[in-house]
Amino acid sequence: MSIHDENRLKRLSFRAWRRGFREADLILGPFVDAHASGLSPEGLDALEFLLAYPDQDLYGWIIQREPPPPEVDLEILGRIQAFRETVYQLPGDVRGS
């Protein structure tokens, strides 16, 4: 891995962990730390593009509260959604029963 790749991954991690919206930080930070190094250059481009969106929009797409716009890479968003569902499973029914 080149120094440019390492710097890019560090910048992505910083952006993912320090968005200013804690709920998004707790999903995006661990996702980037766990998966960014295995992404292709195109996948990293898609992730950077996604991280450029406002927190409220991005979080809404991750939790599937709203549909994303067509220009958003659905593959990377789908990977983040699957990561969230795997890592942050609630015990029992989500309504608390």
Helix/strand-derived category reads mainly alpha
Beta-strand content:
under 5%
Tell the overall outline.
globular
Helix content: 55-70%
DSSP summary, beta strand count = 0
Largest sheet: none
The H/E string reads HHHHH
Please mark out the parts with pLDDT under 50 across 5 or more consecutive residues, or reply none. none
Which whole number gives the mean pLDDT? 88
Q: How big is the Rg?
A: 14 Å
The termini sit apart by 48 Å
With helices defined by DSSP (H or I, 4 residues minimum), what is the helix count? 5
Spell out the key features of this protein.
single chain, mainly alpha, 97 residues
Description:
With 97 residues, this protein is an all-alpha fold. Helix content is 64%, strand content 0%. It is built from five helices and no strands. It has helices spanning 3-17, 22-35, 41-51, 55-62, 74-87. The longest helix has 15 residues, at 3-17. It is globular and about 40 Å long. The termini are far apart. The model has no long low-confidence stretch (mean pLDDT 88).
